[in-house]
Amino acid sequence: MSLSGTQRSVVMVGAGVMAEGYLRAAQRMGLRVGLVETAARHAALAPRFPCVVDFEPVGGVAARDESWLPPAMTLAGRLAPDAVLGFAEPHVLATAILQHRLGVPGPGLDAATVSRNKALQRGEFARAGLPQPGHRHTVRLSDASEWALERLPVVVKPVSLQGSTGVERIDTPEHWQDAVRRRDDEGPLLVESYVEGPEYSIEALVRDGQVLFTNLTRKETTGAPFFVELFHEAGHGARNPVLRKAADELCRGVVAALRLGTGIAHLEFRARTDDDLVIMEVAVRTPGDHILEIVSLAHDFDVYEACLRMALGEQPRLPPVDRGPARSAGSLFLGADRAGILTALDLSDWAAQEDVVHHAARLAPGTAVRPAEDSGDRLAYAVLACPGAAELAARAERLRATAHVEITDAAPA
């Protein structure tokens, strides 16, 4: 592929494993890509994606928002991009600032800022009259004791982390006191009334404030107290039109409340009933757990390309509004059943299953493991595409049953 200076270019702020769909789409579209990433990640990507023509290393702590803006500005100064696309949570603010300064499409500085802080979200959703849990924002957990103890069970969560990190359900006064002992100096936290009901997310493509496409994803989690996600089923709206309609309406309310311009809205919620939904949180970046990939598989179109086209100011190519999902697609995550040292992880049966699009181990033998308390504790994943929901559920159960996992007790400290 020729990469002339007349081609359009895009700066990608962050490019983890689940961002590779953007790079494949960019290559097909003939775009020139500049990456802001770690040197190791750039070295892994550049030989595989000739569309990557420039690079600026991220300095400082890569998990911190403030580490990404200086290299993004430097790279944009060289590349003069036609579009800027952010990947994960720490990239959102730097991307929004750069989009604002260059005058290119994006969710907007206000939407990006609110999305990065769950306490700000609660304030904006309350102002808009959107359904959400009762909550308290507190600097010290002990300051919320009176409110929380009157409302048990409650959920404690950080205001700006992701992947279930730091999310914990508190059921009893004793458990609350233990949490205060462990987390009182942690910093700003949200304490929320626990909402009973299954978990879902809705993924929306938004252009100039208009919702162009939505997908409903059903989730399975570890349950209390940490609610780590272990399975996602894209295209669930075809099986539950009442829930799908309510979720679409809720999503449009959130997009309006955020004043979201152009990009992705990833809205997580619980459903007390199919038409009684409660917002958990919203993000304006690529959802984790391969969700965009399974949305693409379920609806039979390239969501990554659609996002790039919107970032370039174009109308994306979308499936017909009245067409349902083409198939059922899901992402499965394998958790440990006990704490110890992972001594063996054999996924050879997974490779033999025709409905498995791809899979990989996430943790290697020799690693200390535990029943999942956040997303980083999960052992392996698989992306699945099946003719229907029943086949998807059966395949997921087969994979759980055939994964060979050996865990031995950890040596005493």
Describe the overall structure.
The protein has four domains: 9-104, Rossmann fold, CATH 3.40.50.20; 107-114 and 196-324, D-amino Acid Aminotransferase, Chain A, domain 1 (2-Layer Sandwich), CATH 3.30.470; 134-193, Dna Ligase, domain 1 (2-Layer Sandwich); 327-413, ATP-grasp fold, B domain (D-amino Acid Aminotransferase, Chain A, domain 1, 2-Layer Sandwich). It has an eight-stranded antiparallel sheet, with helices on both faces. The chain has a four-stranded parallel sheet with strand order 3-2-1-4, with helices on both faces. Helices cover 31% and strands 29% of the residues. The chain contains 13 helices and 19 strands. Helix 1 (20-29) crosses helix 11 and helix 3 runs parallel beside helix 4 (92-102). With 413 residues, the protein is of the alpha+beta class. It is globular and about 65 Å long.
Would you summarize the structure shown here?
The protein is an alpha+beta fold. The chain has 4 domains: 9-104, Rossmann fold (3-Layer(aba) Sandwich), CATH 3.40.50.20; 107-114 and 196-324, ATP-grasp fold, B domain (D-amino Acid Aminotransferase, Chain A, domain 1); 134-193, ATP-grasp fold, A domain (Dna Ligase, domain 1, 2-Layer Sandwich); 327-413, ATP-grasp fold, B domain (D-amino Acid Aminotransferase, Chain A, domain 1).
